[in-house]
Amino acid sequence: MIHSRIIGSGSYLPRNVVTNAALAQRMDTSDDWIRSRTGIRQRHIAEANETSSSLAFEASKAAIASAGIAAQDIDLIIVATSTPDYVFPSTACLLQDKLGIKGSPAFDLQAVCSGFVYALTTADLFIRSGQHRCALVVGAEVFSRILDWNDRGTCVLFGDGAGAVILKADDQPGIMASALHADGSHAGILSVPGNICGGKVTGDPFLRMDGPAVFKFAVRVLDEVAREILAKCKLQVDDVDWLIPHQANLRILESTAKRLGLPHEKLIVTVDQHGNTSAASVPLALDLALRDGRIKAGDKVMLQGVGGGFTWGAVLVQI
Ligand code: UT7
Fold first, then answer.
1. Looking at ligand 1, which residue's alpha carbon is closest to its atom 17?
2. Helical H runs in the chain?
């Protein structure tokens, strides 16, 4: 039977770090409000010449090096992003070209902050079908470009970055189980309700969010989907070594761990340093914890996404 395993990871953050104090000089907010409501201390913001594909390229090079493969070994590229470089071609095609490879399929996947979990599940299914053997799966975002910097209720929450993994066919799992969900009836609580039409922006090109409604929804579904995955694998919460939920708000992460009965020490937190990087948040956190040695070979890691759509999902992976 064919399974898929994560054999390498990488990430990249723009050099420009913006602290809460720096934001407080530009708008009516404070370090205290941002830290107490969200846990965020700083975020990285892309320079004008950086795009999702350029951040994805840096993260991908690091993932390829850590996997010990050549770019030519990759036969599938999926990029999860809601902030693509262009309307088309896809960020995945631009990334493929930057990597100097061609021929294999490359496409973007749009599930907002659940994007990486959706993309990883998709790549796993491609590999388990036998059609592909070595996938590059990336979450890359420049959310700073779709923020209304006059809306203090949203602009302080997000940051830019990219994370990537190499997923390879293997006879041992790897990816143990996954579950994906969506409920489009909640589209209105988190959206960028605009488009381009006839050379102009139609609607609203900025991120709009009903924060408290998103908060409640996220805490409920992250708990539900974690239990769904554990039931699928016939495992208990104690069997999970690390929980990496989408990094939106420290209070959401802590509530999720608490509801599950998972000790705080098993929670990987990067939201304090990165803010919410949407589809990039989970692979960024995974790469960080693999590189600093917290996550070790054999560990079972629960990855969770939740975001606009509404979309949510989880993947249980053995490293
Ligand atoms: O990736 C998935 C998407 N995002 C999320 O998961 C985010 C989910 N939601 C949240 O994280 C929280 O709801 C927020 C952090 C967005 C807001 O926290 P809250 O505790 O729900 O605050 P609130 O929206 O109820 O606002 C409380 C107060 C308001 O003032 P009044 O009306 O009580 O006087 C806001 O105007 O805080 C005010 N406020 C701010 N004050 C200082 C809102 N933003 C700011 C700010 N600085 N940046």
1. 211
2. 20-26, 31-38, 52-67, 91-98, 115-128, 152-155, 211-233, 250-260, 271-274, 281-291
